[in-house]
Each structure stands twice: as structure tokens, then as C-alpha cells.
Amino acid sequence: MAEIKLTVNGAQRVVDSDADTPLLWALRDDLGLVGTKFGCGAGLCGACTVHVEGQAVRSCQFPVSDAAGKAVTTIEGLAPSADQPHAVQAAWVAQQVPQCGYCQPGMIMAVAALLKETPHPTEQAIREGITNICRCGTYPRVVAAVQQAAKALAG
Amino acid sequence: MSEQRDVIALSTINRRAFLRGGGIGAGALVIAASLPGMLLPTDALADGPPPGAAPPPPQLGFGAMIAIARDGVVSFICPSSEMGQGTQETLARYVGEELDCDYARLKVLLPWADPLFVNPMMRRQMTANSATTVGYFTALRKAAAASRMLLVQVAAQRLGVAEGELTTANGVVRHAASGRSIGYGDLAEAAAKLPVPAQVPLRPASAWTIIGGSTPRKDLAAKVRGSAEFGIDVVRPGMLIGALALGPHPRAKVQATNLDKVRTMPGVTAIVPVEAGYAVLSPRFWQAKKAAEALELKVLSSPTAGLDDKGIDAAMERAFASVPPMEFPDFDFATMRPKEKRADRAAITAALAGAAKRVEATYDVPYVAHATMEPLTCSAHFADGQLTVRGPLQSPEAVRTELSQVLNIPFDKVRVEVTYLGGGFGRKWGVDFPVPAAQAAIATPGRWVKLIWTREQDIAMDQFRPAYRVRQTAGIGADGRLQVMHSRIAGQSINTYHHRKSPPGIADPTAAGMLIYGCYGIPQSLIEYHETKDLSVPVGFWRSVSASQNTFFAEAFLDEVARAAGKDPLAYRRAMLAGEPRILRVLDKAADMIGWSKPKPRGTGHGIAITYNEGHVCAEAVRVRVVKGKLTIEKIVAAFDCGPMIDPKGVESQISGGIVFGLQAAIWGEIPFAEGRPNVANFGEFRMPLLADIPPIEVALMPSGERPGNAGEAGTPPIAAALVNAIADAGGPRIRRLPIARMLEI
After folding, report:
1. Which A residues, 103 through 132, put their C-beta within 8 Å of a C-beta on chain B?
2. What is the interface pTM, i.e. ipTM, of the complex?
3. Mean pLDDT over residues B515-544, rounded?
4. A99 touches chain B (CB under 8 A)
């Protein structure tokens, strides 16, 4: 066990964990941030996607020790407040994307990172850039929701 | 049941249960609908009320509840489990439609196991069989309408006017003539003391404003913020988190050989023997998982010891050869009973022998996993003889019974609470996974325990959709018409695995149901089921159950029959559906959407297939290209009728999502077996479609009638048949064994 200092959703946090603990479990079990989901534990599904220094990472494959001194954003910190949803979250509700909703925090985090990097993605770029697994099959609404979010972010 | 016999009863127990479970303030008006004719079986009531509640009055039957607090906020405990199908929104609309509350502020709460919440249609509290929307349709609207009537009564007394002069909207009773109004919150406490009216008229479909609308689902805001509580998200102070070390089968017996060593690993609080293995408990999952992986298990026994794919294949052949078949008669959905007419085997044999043309084929589907995105998980707490379980459950009532029986705890000392489900699809209907959570909690009294299965364990411990093999023979008359069909299916019985009884004298419907479609009016048909009694792979209900495989068998083989008869597969179906206008309308729509009659380039094919039951008709059509063994799906369309649609956007997502679910099984889904266990680890092997894999999917909603049906399972069954039919039409191979990726590059 070692103390690891990191910034999570803007706040300084200290995690006392095995160094090999995936960021996912440090967030969930040490910091109580359970919006980030466990789906496969193998980096295949993207349910655990968070931002580290603004980059989307699959936190089940990212040791918490590698996040030391870095800024982590989770689904809980994506929007400034509950009544001011991030453009991606707003578009997700408007297009009624979620079904069971379990994979959606990870997909929303992946999309938010994609749009930061590529503010005006082509449909092709969206389809290839978002590789999160959704068992409910919400995919048909995802492209439209990403496009709506891109439009909103562009103002 | 006539509407006049419905009585709405206000009862103390409902209110107490509501207060306990929902955190509603005192003085709330709480209504439960009690419907004579839909009473619970007396044995269910004999188990007694929930802990701390008064005994229920004998007439108590159904009580999905609505509460109005003093501040006017209306809360509704949604009695069925929300697993993505949108049940919270659907049922909330029933309440909103008749209550005239401020619908945007209506709060929906999660349920717990309670006789108050039984689905009047299934007479159980269980979210399955697509039975929620239709099951609660009348009773919930009546509960809401009765609440509104009582609020109006109180308002009329206070304002000194006749009830008929009052109107209700947005949680306010208004007297237009005087301009006075009173909010529901100020009326609720007095209304709660009034007797419930015997006659509760409901608004006709033509007057609906909330039902059929397009407001976003109530569960979405929490889901996009990450604040919806799924089973895996249950957090309690001091909670222990458990990882599992499991044998190769859920009913395997194992023994750990290095317990003492693993107990000393960092973070390990306790190691508890549970069903099929051990739960390693720690404050942190990661440490629990590392320790669980370090446990060395000796397998003492396993029901599938030594099983592999060859063994499964051999078991199918043994069943055909030596297990006497059970017949599955044509089924009457109106009464949920087999039709009286029984097939005459001798006549079938003679008709087949005398047919102008015979078509024979063998079809196969493999075992497939549910693979819900939320792996199996459940939390539990045990103290002073009281067990509380909280998790993602489709069958809270059955879980309560199971825990009580298996763990020998009195029924009234078992409380079962439901979280959001990160996907269900039938897997979380199972009562298996709450048991080890409860066992672990009992071993650590006073502390909450949460068990989490890894993805690999979730797949390996699944209750798979069974593998089936079907031998089909059709006889075509000289006129090209399908005269006789004999279909024999072999595979495991879900009912047998779960020690459930099949209807007496007929084959397990979950295996054999609708293997030959009654809607086509084939003059002679016979369905027979040869149960593979020597296979013990864990099996269970998988979205759409028997329709998931039998629609593939029936609708792909029918395509072969049509082609053998020299007919266009669509025209062949249409000719047989002359007496089925509802099905025909949907079939024609799907054909039109895919451009069935339009010329298409070489290498391009169209395929179509239907599924139907008492609550829906779904037709799906596909356009594919097959070039040099490579398959490209260009477009998928669906036409869908499930009666009036309570939440059309939700229905559309159920159909398109159901198609994606079915696509996975059709193209990639397969759980092979080797050395006595599923030979699949994670999503790398049990491949899921990604966004880039999904072709354009168009869904046409075709509402009809006045009574809602069901939508959650309808999208899944037809896609595999439509796809293989399109592949054959494109000049590709006739695929009779799923998954398609075994035959074609995608």
C-alpha cells in the first residue's frame, strides 16, 4: 500500500492503495465515485472510461500509480453541476440514447474527449472513434447525439 | 374481468410500506389498487406482510403505489425492474395520465420484493416475458384515477362547490368560475382518510396526452450523470467487497487447498465458502480479486465434467435417436393454452410421403451468453436474524423465496431490494447470484457485503440460451403450396435445469414453442421435442426465449421451402397470411421499406422474417451484399405493431436495440465448450458489435388497437432469419448454423 496523490474532478485526493490497483477501483472503492463502471476488466468495453489530463483512458487498465500528480475527470465531474449538464450529457438525454444506462458514463466520457480533440467529427470519425460496447444496442442514436453535442459545443 | 368489479382500496399497510421504502413524509396520500379477480394466490399472502407492517386485509391484491406529499411532490414506486426497457417511464405515464399531477416533477422510486407489487397479469413481482406494460395497464391507471377523484372530493368540500365544477391539471384542483385553486399537497392528507370510490372511470385512449408522448425517460438524467444506482454501485459504510473463486459450473463442488496462505494476503478480511466456490472479502475489490485468483481450487464434482463441443453434438444425436419426443401443440395465446387440435403423426408421415416435393434441412444454434454490461453482482446484510439483499434483480419475489428456503431464514426476515439493472435480458431473472452474497453476509454479520463477478466469471457462470438442433421436413403440394411440416428439435430444457414444471403433457415451451408458426395455417404440422437429458450446461431465459432460436429455424426454413416451390419468399408468406391482416400489414411495410420489389445489383440480396405473439407483430428485412465470401449488411428495417404505444421513442429503441442484440447472436454469438467449461473468456472471444459494425437501422412504428402489447423482446428474433435469407438471396451460401461468422467474413 502506498499513498498516491492525484486531482479528481478538481479536488486534491489521496488514495492509499496497492500501486497496481487500476484507477477504476481506486475511484470506486477508495473515493466512492461509482459512476465509472466495471464492464470487462480488460480494456475491451470502455465502460470505465475517464479522462486523465484530458485524454480518455480505460481506467481498468490504468494503474492508479500512473495517475499520481495528474488531473482525473470522471462522469461525476464532467459537468460543472447537476443542473448544467455537459453538452454531451444534454444531447444524450435529448436523443434519448441510454437504455439500461450502465455503459453510458463511459461512452459519454469517450465522446467528450473525442469532441475536444475533433470538434467537428465526420460520421465516419464518430463510428470509428467510439469503440465502447453497449449491450442494449443504443448505437443507432449515438451518431446523432454526438453530432448534436458537437453543434452545441461549437456554439 | 369486468371493469365494474374493480375496486380501489386504500389500506394502511400500503401506506406504511411506502413510507418505509420510499422516504415519503407523513400525511401522504397513498393509494393502492386492489383488484378482485386478480388476487394474489392465497399462499403468497400466507407468507405474511413485510417486516414492520400491519397484516394485510384479506382483499389486498395489487399495490403499485402513488404517494402525494404535503409539498405536492408525487412519488411513484415503480413495481417492476428498470433494466433499460424503459419501464419506469412507461408505468409513470399510466400514473401521470390519470392523476393530472405535475408530470415533470413526478418522482419514480425503485421497488423491493413485496406482494403489493405483483404484476396483475403474471401474479408475481417479476420483470420478464415483456409483461410489464400490459400487466399494469389497467390497475395503475385506476389507482391514479382514484387518487385524483379523492383529491377532487376534498377540494369540493373545502371550496363548497360541486365536484363537477372542478378541473385538475399539474397537481392543482381548480374552480374556474371563482378562480380559486388548491394544490394536491394541501389536499392529500384529508383525501387519504376518505373511502376509495367503487367506480373509477378511465380516460379513453383518444384523450391521452402523456401516454404516447415523447418526453425523455425519467431515468435518463441520472444515467447520464452517473448517479443512477446500479447493483454494482451499492455502497454502505464499512462495506466489504467480495471477489469470487469459482468452479467450472454453478453447481460444481470445489475445495480450496491453500486457504491459510491466501487468508494472509493483503487486505483479505475473510474467505467464505459459497455456492460453487469461495467469496474473498476485503474493503477493496482489487485486493479481494488478487486473493481470489491466488486460491487454488480442487474440483470435487461438476455437472459438465469433460464436456466439449463434440459431446454436445453427440448428445443432440442421442436425443434424436433415443429420447422419445414430446409434442408441442399449436398454442392459443388468448388463453395461453395449447389448442385442442392435435397432430396425427401417421397422417403427417403419410402426407410427407405423398407430397409432390419434400424439403429437408438440419439447423443449429449454439449456446449464447447474456453478457449484460453490468456483470453479476449483489449486496447483502445480515444482523439479528434479518437478511437484507439489494441488487439488480428481475425476480425480487423469487429471490426472496429462494433465500428463505436455501438459507433457512423465515420469509418475513428476508427483505429484497431492487436497484437499477445494468442490463437484464433474462439473466438477472436468475435467483442464483443473490445466494452467495447472502451467504457471505451471514458469515460477516453486521457488515454489508457486495459480491462482484468478473466478466470472465459472468460469462462462465451464465445461464446460457441453450444450443439446439432442428430437423425440419416440409411437404409441398403439386400447386406449390406448403401442405405439411414436421419439425423436430433437440436440446436442453430450461425448465428441467431450473426444476420447473412444463405444462402437463406437452413439450417445454421454452424449447419448442412456435417452432412452426401457426399464423401460416399450414394444413398439417407437427412439432416434436427430444430433450437432451444428459446435458447439464446451465441454461436460462435469454431475451425472447424460444423465439430467439425458433424464429431463426422457422423463418429461414420457410424461405428454403418457398424457393423450392419456385416462389418469391415474400409472396409465399403473403399467400399464407391472407387471414392475418395485422401480420400482413407489418410484413408489407417492412418489405416496402427495404425496397423488396425494386431491382437490385448482382451480389445484393434481400431477406425478410417475422415474429409475433399475442402482444406484438414484428417484421424485419435486410439488404446485404455478398462478394467473394465477404458479407456486408447495407441496411436493416423493421416494422412493428404492439398496439397503442405508451412511449413510442422507447418502443423504437427497444426494437432497434433488440435488433443489435439479435445481430450479435446471429453473427458472432457462440459459447463453445472444452474440458468441461465454456471456452470463452471475455469480450475478445464473445465478440460484441461496436458502433462501426452497425448498419443503418430504420424502425417504422405501426400502432393499432386500444390495449398495449409488448416490445422488449420483439426486435431480437427475426434478424438472424432475415439475414441468412438475404445472404442466400444474394447468391451466398444457405446458412443453417449460427453464428454466421463461421461461414462468412464480415
Report:
1. 103-105, 108, 126-128, 130-132
2. 0.98
3. 96
4. yes
